[in-house]
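Appendix C reproduces, verbatim, an entry submitted by the partner laboratory led by Prof. M.T., so that reviewers can inspect both the input and the predicted structure.
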Amino acid sequence: MPAITKLLIANRGEIAARIIRSAHALGIATVAVYSDPDAAAPYVTLADEAVRLPGAAPADTYLRGDLVVAAAATAGADAVHPGYGFLSENAGFARACADAGLTFVGPRPETIEAMGDKVRAKAIMAEADVPVLPSATVTDTTDLDQVSAAGAAVGFPLLVKAAFGGGGRGMRLVADPAELAEAVTSARREAASAFGDGTVFLERFVTDPRHVEVQIVGDAHGDVVHLFERECSIQRRYQKIVEECPSPAVDDDLRDALTAAAVAAGWAIGYTGAGTVEFVLDRNGGFYFLEMNTRLQVEHPVTEEVTGLDLVELQLRIAEGEPLPASARQARISGHAIEVRLYAEDVPAGFVPTTGTLHRFAFPPALGIRVDTGFRDGSAVSPHYDAMLAKVIAHGPTRADAARRLARALGRAAIHGVTTNRDLLVAILREPEFLAGGTDRRRCSARCRPAGATSSPPRSASATPRRASPARSPTGSAGTAPTPRSTALPCRRSSSRPARTGSIWRSTAPAGSTGSTASAPTPTSTPATARPRCPRPRGSAIRPSWHRPGRCWPRCPAWFGGCWPNPARWSPRASRSWCWRR
């Protein structure tokens, strides 16, 4: 395979910047592609060259494989790295790159195709003696009687899952056989809309499961090795928000079994590049194949932190035909790493994405802290793409050390202009149950999620007015996410602000308010309280010292540009009527 001299990154945001840095470290020139909303994004200026993809929606830009291939030809690139999401698991795009004489940094198109079909993937894994859950496929020709028989054979409770999708789309949990037909119908409808294929399959549901995945790396010479496991059980909407390596639930014996199964999966399909084999782990230590991601995972930094390896560098070297280095073959776990995904979203409203301008976005340097982001001061959070602002990773000698470092780093970050899930992440990291290793995939929905949506969301000191926005498209899907919440001017007191008791968010919305119907067990020792007011009475003069950075109660966006339109024109008189605590 020829050496890579110029690499085009067919992605955006933090992963594009991440790949660019590793490519530059290897002396490889880089080319970025960008949509109109991303014209001023940091990764665009970080690359050596940039090519515009006209438009804004993913379907018109980053999901257009023909435009990406044309951009590579225009820039003279000889290789394409897809990152994660978008075209990273598109076998047709991988073939188009090969037809154009471009090196695709990833597995062969046949491998992508085989693992993209979850029904076929389960069959391949079963043949390779990788444990799989009982399942049955439901196609357009399957009638209701056959669906009922298949459900009885699989056993209840069961999951209805899209055969060609992911991210929770087209997924339904069914506990009652009487509900199966309706669940299959709605899941097929959603799968057809999101992925273009309505095929679904039934799979036995594991009660109180853990989501554990194994990182594998294979070269073109037939060697496949593992780089240990990652715990990804804490999720919301079937999407991970906290990941760590190693898993607190995996001992040495279980680790040996898990990693051996993952390597066997890689050998079964002749895997090349970096990939992830995902398993569901039951309460008795049994594990079962879930799916295989034929790309770099969002959470790959935790593996890098504990092994000291650069997975993007490994991908590039493997794409050039090099064998696996000794550092990968002899990798060892050093310490513990935890990653959280910082999202621009309104947690009490049901994790609804938010939009706006990041007036301030900075993480103070700290020992053992790594921040992968595609944003900076002044960046706009667009409604067109995924709501993730950053991945914040902490590495420490122990799990407790990593959790403390990460919680402190999040708390010290300056994030002004957009509502985020920071408070939720800090609450999880400081939760005694989490620190004891008691994570499970229902953590957010059962405990951290509020009992109901509120008419006015909780705001950080930097909250700004937000306009109604069209639905987002996740980074890795052409589908749509819930429409961002529209909010009126923020500088008014609301009695429905959620109160935080211990580490659990609890809604204090008045009776009759609408929103999520999910319930959460909440402590009752501390009564819900209304939103705290400004320390100064209405109409009194507020000294400027109250509004200097770090000295407000706790902070006031009048200084940071959150409420007052022009922070340069701040005055005590102006802050009297605009302080956000009123």
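Confidence is low (pLDDT under 50) at residues 450-582. Additional entries are available on request from the coordinating office.
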